[in-house]
């Protein structure tokens, strides 16, 4: 169970970083 929760946490953080990076790239394209 602990491994599963840590996996969910890792995926959530990774998706958040990927989403932030993607949105920042889109913002740079606008300028």
TrEMBL record:
Which UniProt keywords are present, listed alphabetically? Chloroplast, Membrane, Plastid, Transmembrane, Transmembrane helix
Membrane-crossing residue ranges in chain numbering? 6-25
- Does the keyword field hold Transmembrane? yes
This chain's protein is named Cytochrome b6-f complex subunit 6
- Species of the source: Polysiphonia infestans
């Amino acid at each position: 169970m602990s491994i599963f929760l840590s996996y969910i946490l890792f995926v959530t953080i990774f998706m958040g970083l990927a989403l932030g990076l993607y949105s920042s790239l889109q913002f740079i394209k606008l300028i």
